[in-house]
Each structure stands twice: as C-alpha cells, then as structure tokens.
Amino acid sequence: MTNGKNKIEAVFSERNIDEDCDTIARLLSPYREVVRELLIQGNYAEAVTILLEVLESLTYHFVEDEHYNYFDDMYSPDYVCQDMMEAIISSIKSGNFPAAELQRLKDGLEKLKHTEAYENYGVPYVLDVWERFLA
C-alpha cells in the first residue's frame, strides 16, 4: 500500500464514523482540492490514482464498517467523491486527458461496479455519474 493509500485508509477509521459520515467527508475534502489542482497542472495520472484509491476505500469500508447504518438519505462522502469525478469528467471533456489514463480510470471504475457496496447499495454513487457521462 502506498503512503497516500495509507492516509486515505486512515480517513475511514471507525472512530471517524458519525451521522451521515460527515467527519469522513470532511477529512476527504482536501483530496477534492488536490485532484482539482493535479488536473490543472496536467498530472492526470496522480489525479486518477487518488480518485480510484478514495473510491476503493469508500467501497470497502461502506460495507465492512456498515456505513449504511449511519445515514438515511445523505451519505456525505459520496458528495465529495462526486465533486472529484465531475472535475475529472470536465478535464476529459476539455480534450487533454491522456488515453492511457482514461483507460485506467475506466478499468478501475468497472472493477468497482462489481463490489457488494455498488451492487447492493449503489455506492459509490459516482459510478452512476460516470455511466451518464459515457451515455
């Protein structure tokens, strides 16, 4: 596991679980800004890596730590991830996104579609955002 992945995993610590998982969302917020900045700088590979690592951790912990018990209609971390996905989609639409990174993103997101979190709970919601973009 990379150091960045270790830091992302720490965000999902059980001690950070609260109503709507707001603390997790707050702790993920800096990653939203980092992804935006990386895209501006043209560092698409790192932006894709961060998004996929956040989504992998979210998907795992949503089921493993039963995040579904902590919200009714708003899972706050999903909104932060949606912002990251929308920034990446905007970058793709600009036409500068490298084909290799786009394929890595597609492959990573496809893998997440087959997780228990997505199949049973529709989490991460950003997969739906991605599917609408592709349509």
Strand content: under 5%
Helical stretch count? 7
**Alpha carbon gyration radius:** 14 Å
N-end to C-end Cα span:
34 Å
- The whole-number mean of residue pLDDT values reads 96
| Poorly predicted runs | none
Helix content: over 70%
Please describe what this structure looks like.
- There is one protein chain.
- By secondary structure, the protein is mostly helical.
- It has helices at 3-11, 22-41, 44-64, 76-93, 99-112, 116-121, 126-134.
- Helices cover 72% and strands 0% of the residues.
Describe this structure in a few short sentences.
With 135 residues, this protein is mostly helical.
Summarize this structure as a short list of keywords or feature phrases.
135 residues; mainly alpha; 7 helices; 0% strand; globular
Give the topology, please:
Blueprint: H1 3-11, H2 22-41, H3 44-64, H4 76-93, H5 99-112, H6 116-121, H7 126-134
Helix pairs in contact: 1-3, 2-3, 2-4, 3-4, 3-5, 4-7
